[in-house]
């Protein structure tokens, strides 16, 4: 409060001081104006020859016009105070001495190095040359103190004098009142301001601070009184509102704390219900995936039986799922092969058809597209090749009709389902290849150890989309030993690395050419080398076509083409063998199934059943032979890869067993049984570090597994 009071007093005093100065200045000018009026009146009277001078005039002097401040001969024209020449001389002498001293002091600074007498002479000369101003206030001492104003009439200079005391008296009266006002105001401030500050500021602030202190000590039942709705009142109101909010929040928090356990149980129950609902939906979705994959599987069939054109493919869909302990995958990639006979019954040529496609979309959308493509293509192949049919068409006509039919089917979906694809027909004898490519990745020719694209520009849009290009069938001549590699865009969509949370994706399509060369055209090696470059982030399918390869595997000559896998099964032998096994006659079942296998070793149902029975009956060499045949055409069954690995291990083929187990690990990295198996294989092969690594992975998943403990002891003993 002292600082506020001091500031107020100083401010008011300064303001009143400024007002006083202005008042005194105005009073001075007012007096000067009155004196000038009377001087002008005297001037008029002198001109008129009158002597009726104003009452305030104390004297009137005259002298000839000329320069100089002192030493003039004055004539006294009028005097009320008994002014005479002696008083004038004495006063002028006194005033001259005073003025001379002051002027000499000033000249010392201007004329350095001059003596006192020289300075005095210079000063006197300046005084003699100086003209006193007319109409301005001047001062004179002649017995009393006077102020005077000068004017000139002709060659005579007149001096009209007024009493200095009267002038000071007026100023004094005004100054006295001003002093009283300043003093009174100061006293008022010193008395009234503390009271005012205490009432309007100190008490409200103290109340507010008291409330803050209580809140700091935990008392939230505080209400600061508000005397006036000023700034302090607004602060108090805001403080009260804040305290009310805190109190309300604390009460709510306490209520929540009191019922926390109940709420946690309630929320936990809600979360569990939601999780159960999500799990139900997940199971339902996986069921849809599983049914879709079952529908698609027989459609993606390597039905080629040509001894001169060898075909094989692999499909790795991106979406993996598990339904009722069965693993599967789902996606939009599709591969299909078959055989046609085109020409006339007397003169026809055999052709091998191969198709690789990639439907737009992920998971179910892509799977739907590939499913439609599989149904349409299998339907076309069934019509074209059923019952050893010979089509009286050229390869160009067949490919054109095939494109038109597939395109019209996908066009009916109005752009919601499209597919890229390459469809080829290869003359089994001449190697002439007819094909069209609907915006599918370029086909690769592998010849003499070098890989190259056989296309270099886009010439047809995806099936189901309008194309600005005119459809035409392309031709290419294959030489004996040539390979054609068809693959989906998963071959190029590789995640190379992640830098600063940004994924770096491969954009160089020529990388695939290098992969084909390093893999020597082998599709398994191609897949392995692709994965060594980066992570595959899309569906991947690779179809290999070999024309008259020197070391091509022998393929049993068949003239018929099958639409689905179950049409090529030797039904009677298959059913008889299956029934014998169910009745416990496993060896008879194997004998019957071997007869069927000798007739057709490409029947997948037959191969699967024979492979499983021979494995369970511990006929491991036969199991290895049959399971290898099955997996060469359908490499996506992790369970059969595991059985093959066990069988290879039982007959001592540890390296082959390890390769098969690694395939299982790629498809089911969390399979504890396979991880233990991998660890044991690496231990037997002397790969101690790898064995320890697989053991640790298995232990993280199932730390109570007895086989893991046994294996750890064996590793410690080695």
Automatic annotation (TrEMBL):
SUPFAM superfamilies hit by this protein: HAMP domain-like, PP2C-like, TPR-like
Residues of the HAMP domain: 199-251
Swiss-Prot/TrEMBL keywords: Coiled coil, Membrane, Transmembrane, Transmembrane helix
Transmembrane segments: 6-24, 177-197
Recorded GO CC terms: membrane
Listed GO biological process terms: signal transduction
Coiled coil: 243-284
Keyword Coiled coil: yes
Entries under CDD domains matching the protein: HAMP
Top-level lineage group: Bacteria
Protein name (database record): HAMP domain / stage II sporulation protein E multi-domain protein
């Amino acid at each position: 409060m002292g600082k506020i009071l001091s500031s107020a007093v100083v401010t008011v005093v300064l303001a009143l001081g400024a007002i006083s100065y202005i008042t005194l200045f105005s009073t001075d000018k007012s007096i000067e104006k009155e004196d000038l009026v009377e001087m002008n009146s005297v001037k008029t009277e002198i001109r008129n020859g009158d002597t009726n001078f104003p009452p305030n005039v104390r004297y009137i002097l005259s002298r000839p016009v000329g320069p100089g401040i002192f030493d003039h001969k004055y004539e006294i024209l009028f005097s009320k105070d008994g002014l005479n020449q002696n008083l004038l001389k004495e006063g002028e002498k006194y005033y001259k001495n005073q003025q001379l001293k002051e002027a000499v002091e000033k000249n010392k600074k201007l004329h350095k190095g001059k003596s006192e007498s020289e300075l005095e002479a210079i000063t006197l000369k300046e005084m003699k040359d100086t003209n006193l101003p007319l109409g301005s206030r001047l001062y004179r001492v002649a017995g009393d103190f006077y102020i005077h104003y000068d004017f000139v009439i002709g060659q005579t200079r007149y001096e009209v004098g007024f009493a200095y005391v009267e002038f000071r008296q007026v100023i004094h009266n005004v100054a006295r009142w001003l002093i009283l006002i300043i003093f009174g105001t100061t006293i008022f401030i010193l008395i009234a301001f503390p009271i005012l500050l205490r009432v309007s500021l100190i008490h409200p602030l103290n109340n507010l601070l008291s409330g803050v202190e209580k809140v700091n000590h935990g008392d939230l039942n505080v209400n600061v009184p508000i005397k006036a709705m000023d700034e302090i009142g607004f602060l108090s109101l805001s403080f009260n509102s804040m305290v009310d909010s805190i109190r309300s929040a604390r009460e709510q928090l306490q209520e929540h704390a009191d019922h926390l356990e109940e709420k946690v149980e309630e929320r936990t129950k809600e979360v569990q219900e939601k999780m159960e609902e999500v799990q139900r939906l997940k199971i339902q979705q996986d069921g849809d995936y599983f049914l879709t994959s079952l529908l698609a599987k027989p459609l993606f069939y390597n039905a080629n039986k040509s001894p001169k054109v060898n075909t094989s493919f692999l499909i790795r869909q991106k979406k993996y799922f598990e339904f009722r302990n069965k693993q599967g995958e789902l996606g939009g990639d599709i591969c299909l092969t078959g055989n046609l006979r085109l020409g006339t019954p007397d003169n026809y040529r055999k052709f091998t058809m191969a198709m690789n496609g990639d439907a737009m979309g992920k998971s179910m959308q892509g799977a739907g597209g590939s499913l439609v493509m599989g149904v349409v293509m299998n339907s076309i192949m069934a019509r074209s090749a059923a019952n050893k049919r010979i089509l009286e068409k050229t390869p160009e006509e067949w490919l054109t009709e095939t494109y038109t039919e597939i395109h019209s089917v996908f066009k009916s979906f109005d752009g919601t389902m499209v597919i890229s694809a390459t469809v080829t027909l290869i003359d089994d004898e001449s190697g002439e290849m007819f094909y069209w490519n609907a915006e599918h990745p370029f086909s690769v020719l592998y010849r003499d150890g070098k890989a190259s694209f056989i296309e270099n520009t886009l010439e047809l849009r995806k099936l189901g989309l309008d194309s600005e290009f005119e459809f035409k069938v392309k031709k290419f001549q294959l030489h004996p030993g040539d390979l054609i590699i068809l693959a989906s865009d998963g071959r190029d969509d590789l995640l190379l690395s992640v830098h600063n949370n940004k994924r770096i994706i491969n954009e160089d399509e020529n990388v695939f050419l290098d992969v084909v060369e390093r893999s020597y055209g082998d599709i398994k090696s191609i897949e392995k080398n692709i994965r060594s470059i980066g992570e595959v982030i899309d569906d991947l399918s690779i179809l290999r076509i070999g024309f008259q390869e020197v070391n091509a595997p022998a393929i049993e000559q068949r003239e018929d083409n099958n639409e689905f896998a179950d049409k090529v099964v030797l039904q009677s032998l298959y059913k008889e063998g299956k029934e014998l096994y169910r009745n416990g006659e496993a060896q008879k079942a194997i004998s019957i199934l071997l007869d069927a296998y000798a007739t057709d070793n490409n029947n997948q149902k037959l191969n699967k059943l024979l492979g499983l029975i021979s494995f369970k009956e511990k006929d491991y060499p036969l199991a290895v032979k049959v399971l290898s045949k099955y997996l060469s055409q359908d490499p996506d069954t992790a369970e059969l890869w595991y059985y093959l690995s066990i069988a290879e291990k039982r007959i001592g083929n540890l390296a082959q067993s390890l390769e098969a187990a690694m395939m299982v690990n790629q498809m089911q990295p969390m399979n504890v049984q396979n991880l233990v198996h991998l660890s044991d294989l690496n231990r037997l092969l002397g790969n101690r570090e790898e064995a320890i690594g697989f053991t640790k992975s298995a232990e993280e998943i199932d730390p109570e597994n007895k086989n893991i403990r046994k294996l750890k002891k064996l590793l410690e003993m080695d």
